[in-house]
Amino acid sequence: MSLTELSPQQKVVMQRSMFRAVDLIENFFPAKWDHNKLIKLEKHQRDFIDCIQFGFPLSYYKFEEFKDKKPPKGVITIWRRQVSKSWSCAEAIAALMIIEAPCEAGIVAASETESQLLIDKVKYLFDNSQFSKFIEGRPRLDILKLKNGSSVRSHTCSETSIRGPSYGIILIDESALMNEKILFGAALPTVTHGRRWVAITTPKGRKGKLVEFFFKGLESRPIICRNCKEEYPQKFFNADFPYPKFVELPELPDCEICGKNNYKYGMGYFAIPYLDPWNCDLIDAEELRAVLEIHDNSPLARQEYLGEIIDEASMVILKEWIDKNTNVMLRNTMVRLDGVAYVAGLDYGRHHDAASICITHTDKKSGEIVVDYMRTISGEFDHDTDWESIKKQFFTIIKFYRPVWVVPDATGLGDPLVEELHKDIRALKLRCKLFNNKKDRLGFTISHITKPDLIGNLIALFSRNPHALQMPPGSEPEIGE
After folding, report:
1. pTM of the entire structure?
2. Which contacts (CB < 8 Å, 24+ apart) does range 29-34 have?
3. Which domains does the chain have, with CATH numbers?
């Protein structure tokens, strides 16, 4: 069919498809599970493919914003597994081999098999689309050529395999696992005169040059006023910019030029496409929440299932931090002061076979929160016995301190035990209230988003700031002694 035979709507589709890779993919390429259907890309895939083609996602930026500056040459994508990273790469390469012919692309993977699998995915897209006749000759395992002059070649992550070629685009799969000498000394130089290098990987901790580049890409983004287009560096504002939700902005003061308060991120040194695991059709949110709950929201589970980058300490509070910050002159004994409004916290901790009880108050002069007393109780995996033992000790401490608020961790205790705790407090006629952070639920519920922030704050507290912690005594006196 010639262009003159196309309907106006078909002409628009064709024009868009010959300009933007995302449109070509969705209008012409087959779905990976059913080649009789067309691909339907997720938002994170569309943004990623835009970054490969243009250096920025069209969902967030306009071409006019890059009239006076070049878009980033590097794209760094650190996502969790099973979100179609490899297929997105194959789809982008296949589309660009048509739109931007002659396009020369390189693929680098950890092994020969992995790199050839990506070539196979590109070949699948051509074989099952209207572009099957574009393929020139018989494809080899490591190279695919088109009649329009485009080609894609695969490499293993070795210097001898990568050194020499020049590419317009190079994709580096599982780049965090690659030797940095090979990555920066052999792979990236292949696009010295090309358009883009793309590093794709799953998170492997905070160490390494690639992760350093990732955070540099986030921190180098200017803050742009949507109203007057004034740009500010992030350090201009005294604010903490959120990670991993790095597309969100903290509360910022009004723009100094126009007085409006409507900002967005500009583009930094590198393009960093964002994936929200809680809003992705490829991920079942309820199943994800259940898996994280099974793993007690551990940092390693969050790295694997949410794609978060955890630090070297694996989000664990190290004993040496505690020792360094402990004031040995203080003792963890039960002492009650008159006129003090105490708060009691209870964490059941059934996943770790231990529970914690903490008594605190706020110092009226300094406004600082003081930890008055803490007790950790070992459990025994028997749910009923364990809870009864904990509850008995908890009420012993409650009767002694007579707190204003009791804050039970409803995440660990669960609704039935919090309700039981509430009834016991009322039955004993204790003058304390249960603190609830949700109107329809008793107790304090710590969400899957809040918990890592709490742990992160404690790590910052213990690892960087001098604080005095109370030292547990050799023996604890009984109440009344």
Report:
1. 0.66
2. 29/91, 29/94, 29/95, 29/125, 29/129, 30/124, 30/125, 30/128, 30/129, 32/87, 32/121, 32/124
3. 12-221+267-271 (3.40.50.300), 319-471 (3.30.420.240)
